[in-house]
Design a protein that fits this description.
It is a single chain. The chain is built from 16 helices and four strands. It is mainly α. The chain has one domain. The protein has a two-stranded antiparallel sheet. The chain starts with a helix and ends with a helix.
Length: 427
């Protein structure tokens, strides 16, 4: 294995770690700001370090530090302390590992050697995701059971009943996807979405399999135990459910595990139904052949984006007093962003003048595709957050009714329709 392959593997692992776990403070901050927007309030924006508040992000970081240094208390009535201790770790690890097979870009070729752009270079694809996504519920069940608390036990029972009904619908919806794409490898599925249908519509899964997409997205919400499917926590009914007896970093692991599961679900939804790392109507070959055009477009867009962002920053700080120490942040951010924009523009000019070569072009395409995937990933995460603060929690009977009487029959119907179409068209 050469140096380039080792570097690519390290980059893929870092991307998986950052998107699955490292974005948790950003997701917490984003959720609070979106909740504030929906509820017509400001959200966190006061906590700062030397005047640097990052729009409220420092508050999320402070909360994480509080959990790290808070006393880790184990109630005296706990009998199964080993199970009580490992339960949060199971939720966290299972949620994190689901990210390992997500392709961030097309296979990267350096000096003639191809390397998968995913943390674990395996073709198990969607099977890997289903295996580890289903394991996280064991941590919730063990946490509720080992807590020796009636609310915790009820939360664990609710989680197990929920996962049984919604895992079935999720797996059935994926069968339709497998019939459509003809592969379990996520990279092959993204490749299949690089074309068009009817001459102009991107061949994304959302257009090829709209019913499967709807079912999968609904079941993904249930898989992550987020509103409107958060009956395992149900604060108004069972205090906090499975994590009632947890505190400090053990409680923190449950929360990080929830956001890791949300991130993994967002990534798999983007990969299966929104073209993954593909830009609309532009595949890898087209990007490679038109890299100069891409550089020119970026050269035009970068100063426009810099103008509007700096204008927004100045407006965002109008409410502060002129002598407020947090005014320093505006100056630092504006100068830093303008500096980064200038460096990127110089890079685009050098690309146009000197070219990139084969390896450079392949790397540039990979960077663009990674950026595309991350943009789609954050947009899907925003949908998760938006739904949480828009819909009410389902009652237990409503949740089971939706799973068994609506989603599963629709999934089976979709399999039949897809299979008939595949056989009839020979595709």
């Amino acid at each position: 294995m050469n140096t380039a392959s080792i570097v690519i593997i390290i980059v893929n692992i870092l991307l998986a770690k950052i998107l699955a776990v490292g974005t948790t403070p950003i997701m917490v901050w984003w959720e609070r700001r979106v909740a504030g927007f929906i509820q017509d309030r400001t959200g966190p924006n006061r906590c700062d370090i030397g005047g640097i508040r990052l729009g409220g992000l420092i508050q999320a970081i402070a909360d994480m530090l509080k959990l790290v240094f808070k006393e880790d208390f184990t109630p005296s009535h706990i009998k199964y302390k080993f199970l009580y201790t490992i339960a949060p770790a199971i939720v966290f690890i299972a949620s994190f590992l689901t990210f390992a097979v997500i392709p961030f870009a097309d296979d990267l070729v350096i000096d003639g050697q191809s390397q998968m752009m995913q943390a674990i270079p395996t073709t198990l694809g969607i099977m890997w995701f289903l295996a580890f996504a289903g394991l996280s519920v064991f941590g919730i069940i063990l946490g509720g059971y080992s807590s020796e608390n009636k609310y915790g036990l009820l939360g664990g029972i609710r989680a197990s009943a929920q996962v049984i009904s919604y895992e079935a619908a999720m797996a059935l919806s994926i069968i339709s996807i497998l019939l459509t794409y003809g592969s379990i490898h996520l990279g092959d599925m993204v490749h299949a979405q690089s074309g068009v249908i009817f001459g102009f519509i991107p061949a994304w899964g959302i257009f090829m399999q709209p019913l499967a997409a709807l079912i999968f997205i609904v079941t993904a919400f249930a898989e992550t135990n987020r509103t409107p499917f958060d009956i395992a926590e149900g604060e108004s009914e069972i205090v906090a459910g499975y994590h009632t007896e947890y505190s400090a970093m053990r409680f923190g692991l449950f929360q990080v595990g929830e956001y890791a599961a949300m991130s993994a679900s967002s990534a798999i939804i983007v990969t299966l139904f929104f073209g993954g790392y593909n830009l609309p109507w532009i595949d890898t070959v087209m990007l490679k052949d038109n890299m100069n055009i891409v550089a020119i477009v970026l050269l035009v867009l970068l100063p426009i984006k810099a103008y509007f962002l700096t204008k927004w920053m100045n407006k965002n700080y109008d409410w502060l007093d002129a002598n407020d120490k947090r005014q320093r942040e505006k100056n630092i951010l504006v100068k830093g962003f303008l500096g980064i924009t200038a460096i990127l523009m110089i890079g685009m000019v050098l690309i146009l003048v000197a070219g990139l070569g084969e390896n450079g072009t392949n790397i540039a395409v990979a960077i663009i595709q990674i950026g595309t995937f991350i943009a789609k990933f954050f947009m899907m995460s925003l949908v998760f957050i938006w739904i949480r603060w828009t819909l009410l929690r389902f009652r237990y009977d409503q949740l089971q009714m939706l799973g068994w009487k609506v989603l599963i029959p629709l999934s089976i119907l979709n399999i039949v329709i897809t299979a008939i179409f595949v056989v009839a068209t020979g595709s």
